[in-house]
Amino acid sequence: MNEDTPIVARRVDLGFPTDVPRHWAGDPVFTRISDALSLLFPAGEAFFIQAVNHYKDRIDDEELRAAVRGFAYQESMHSKEHAAYNAMLEAQGLDIGWVERSLKTRLGIARRYMPPIMQLAFTATAEHLTATMAEGLLGALREQEQLARAHPRMRALYYWHAVEEVEHKSVAWDVYHRVAHGGVVRRLIAQVWVTTLVLINVSLAAGWMLYRDGLLFDLTTWRRSIPLLWGRHGFFTRMVRPFLRGFRPGFHPRETPVPPGYREFVRAWDGCTDALAASEQALAAH
Ligand SMILES: [Fe+2]
Ligand SMILES: [Fe+2]
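That is the input. Now the predicted structure with fe (ii) ion docked in place:
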């Protein structure tokens, strides 16, 4: 475990009022990609928890056992909050129930027929992906004006979620390598698989929501969004290299440094135990 980023069990209940603007992040494409990810989280994180828990009785190291418990707590709290957020999207008139239902069915099939070691490899690399996104987001919260304009409650959700993804990013990785001895080749296959599935699922869901917004074929929207997301210093462009590091056979998620904004959030949380207030205070501290 990393002493710099210990796993903390935080109880969070943000509540999502329906008056959150439809394009809460300002940019519609960025908003809908975030929304699409949110649709994947409840079923995805439930899958991750069971994949890791399958091996928990084989863990001798007390520290890793405690980390697995912390990981499960954090992921179930994320699922709960993202389910509430997804319900808000439905209440705003977006018919996106099919995204969650179809993912749940597919993951149910995977749970039944995929060997547990492959489910764990899948989880370890998916956690590397979420940690990469979390680290990218924490950096961007400070640098990109775009996010400064995001709705505070939504920003708090993603800030808190990102902080906890950093804290537990190596748990599934360590269980996979140190306990299940799953090997590098399987992990690399899983990384290609996870990347492809996430890209397809997020593109389909985000595309659907943009279609419902009447913006999918709106060139002005894309002309503004593409540089912001995929330009030279774009939000996603900057995540590509850190994510690809996972393909190095000897890579470990703890190699990447503690991202900016992490400590500010943790300190603020300790003082108020409220995600919204902690997020605002942490951002003001810069
Ligand atoms: Fe999570
Ligand atoms: Fe996670």
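DSSP finds twelve helices and no strands in the chain.
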